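INPUT
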Amino acid sequence: MKRLIAVDWGTSSLRGALLDADGRILDEISAPAGILNVPAGGFPAVFADHFAHWRSTGASCLISGMAGSRQGWREAPYCACPAGFADIASRLLWIEPRRIAIVPGLSCEDRGVPDVMRGEETQVFGALHMLGLSDALLVLPGTHSKWVRVQAGRITQFRTFMTGELYALLRQHSILSRTLPAVEGELDADAFERGVAHARESVSLLHAAFSVRTLSLFDRLPAEAMPSYLSGLVIGEELRAQGLSPGAEPVVVVGAPALTARYQLALASQAMQSRAVGSQASWRGLWAIAMQLGELA
Amino acid sequence: MKRLIAVDWGTSSLRGALLDADGRILDEISAPAGILNVPAGGFPAVFADHFAHWRSTGASCLISGMAGSRQGWREAPYCACPAGFADIASRLLWIEPRRIAIVPGLSCEDRGVPDVMRGEETQVFGALHMLGLSDALLVLPGTHSKWVRVQAGRITQFRTFMTGELYALLRQHSILSRTLPAVEGELDADAFERGVAHARESVSLLHAAFSVRTLSLFDRLPAEAMPSYLSGLVIGEELRAQGLSPGAEPVVVVGAPALTARYQLALASQAMQSRAVGSQASWRGLWAIAMQLGELA
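OUTPUT
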């Protein structure tokens, strides 16, 4: 029976899974070998280092993520939205014919300004597959969160939010860092929800973020609670921007458990439904592409 | 005839002017002796260093800005909004009776979250005095911009936006810095206005900022134009948050010429009227307080 090497090759990390023909995970690896850590021309060698032992079984390999970017192994041109599962499955970039391919990312346009994703499209189709959905609003939290609208099985529109990155910038480099403890403790759910609520009611994060300083100045929130409050502010800004209303369809949150739990808490505190799918959505998406290609027959 | 030493003592700089009884500027100084650069207990000495020669004329001194903060010379408690000129003039904090006083800052509340200013209140009342206005919407651009609503001569509400600081963070520390040239050239007005327009139409700066990356990726804006575009994005976010509509009253922009010109350009590009007032608004505000006190009689 054939096997699939499913790889999510991102900016800062490399993750891989060996899957059987039914999509079951036989083995998994993770390494800090993101594309920014690969020397020029070094992609074949890094790939061999991590996957030669799995390849000896005759498995073929599908790769999603930043490996298909201009700074990656080889550039896989973006598919323009609206784009469905069949579009990305038919536009793989083959590195070795029928052996190694890169899944293309997606682009979309909003009033003349493009947006892009690489890797998340595979997670989205994997999550839809797992949940049996063809219409959904999804969020994939992270350094650059993606909010994705799927209609009749196709990604029609998506937006990137620099949420994780801005949190880190404010936390480490802004005037607010003076108010925040150096070490981040456990999430303080009350402070987090207070931040979510304030950002959702505010006009802009550019204004709401200043409340970290003023609440501290007036001793209305202790320093230990501030990182949770700030996290609530940046995630609350995402929710404000979606214009979500209570009673809407459940938001599908895709990602690692710590982050999806935080987004689910934010959504629930604003009376919105959600469902979570773990990072295995990537594996399911890549497996579904391999099935489509008949690679696992 | 008596004279006034007007001082704007901020976080990073110290500015002073010697004014005659009619408010004319006789002399001015500026030094990088902001409150963060004053050692503990060092305020009287730094003050004497810069102003002893003016004080020998018998002039009294009024100080606005961060000198009245907890980290400053002495803490002057905030006046709560709504607050008018008479409120701050009657609540000076005297360091030396009838010789040296600090003007208090203002605080306001928005759904349980405070906001604060120190120094800008004096600029606002000075600008209103210069323009003969008692109702206005003002913006004081800077590291932390303030948008201020004045009704019947009183500041009824204001909001801080971390605009200048966020611009610097994105410029220097974010992933966008890779797209931006190290040296900032002249303002590219077209790129700036494009940024203003995109931010105003966007749902959030957290999303709009990512366009710096994607416009670069698709070669739709040259690297040299990117700092101007990003500047337009952050200022456009302020305009979006105000919910201003064309045909509204002219916005009064108070500050140094380079910044006020940029805000006036942003407002004009969105079909909004504005008037600019220079940094001498501080001197006019302090002079008006001295007049009110009878100090210059």
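end of record. The two ends of chain B are 8 Å apart (CA to CA).
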